[in-house]
């Protein structure tokens, strides 16, 4: 399927690319010459018509700050680093995407699902709450209990990471998991 073109009707921030290249992992953003290797090897792009790492890189180069930081597709990256391994220009594509996600998160633009996953992690040490039925099923199959998570240690290691601000606006369910204070 032909790739959708980038609309540059949104505001361009000429300084945006420099913000990205100042961040660890973002340094080689401007070396991208748009060959498309990252997109063709990306396992997520294989299953999505919208997700295109080459396009994310181009949007960052062009300074489409608002467009790239507000887009949901940024969060589809599975951080598998295939793109980084394959880029002929040495662009750390996965790291650039991480930088962009961090910038979006700093502005409070985090999809609800990730906030809930973070809440679960803080509460249980697992990103998904494991239902009692699943634990019983394990027992009935003679499987060992799940490894115990050191929640206190986990919360300690998260201290100073502005977790509270990341969870702003999280659902009631997620709020109940506020164990780090
Ligand atoms: S593989 Fe590298 S050079 Fe090619 S489009 Fe992706 S980031 Fe740009
Ligand atoms: S790190 Fe992200 S963009 Fe790169 S190949 Fe993996 S899923 Fe695709």
Layout of helices and strands:
Elements: H1 16-21, H2 37-41, H3 53-62, H4 65-69, H5 82-86, H6 93-106, H7 112-124, H8 132-140, H9 151-158, H10 163-166, H11 172-175
Helix pairs in contact: 3-6
Bound molecules: iron/sulfur cluster (SF4) (2 copies).
One iron/sulfur cluster is lined by residues 32-38, 54, 57, 87-89, 91, 93.
Describe the 3D structure.
The protein has about 180 residues and is mostly helical. About 45% of the residues lie in helices and about 0% in strands. It folds into two domains: about 15-105, Alpha-helical ferredoxin (Fumarate Reductase Iron-sulfur Protein, Chain B, domain 2); about 110-175, no CATH class. It contains eleven helices and no strands. Helix 3 packs across helix 6 (about 95-105). The longest helix has 14 residues, at about 95-105. The model is unreliable at about 175-180 (pLDDT under 50). One iron/sulfur cluster (SF4) binds near residues 43, 78 and 82. One iron/sulfur cluster binds near residues 34 and 91.
Question: What keywords describe this structure?
Answer:
single chain; 181 residues; mainly alpha; Fumarate Reductase Iron-sulfur Protein, Chain B, domain 2; 2 domains; 46% helix; binds iron/sulfur cluster
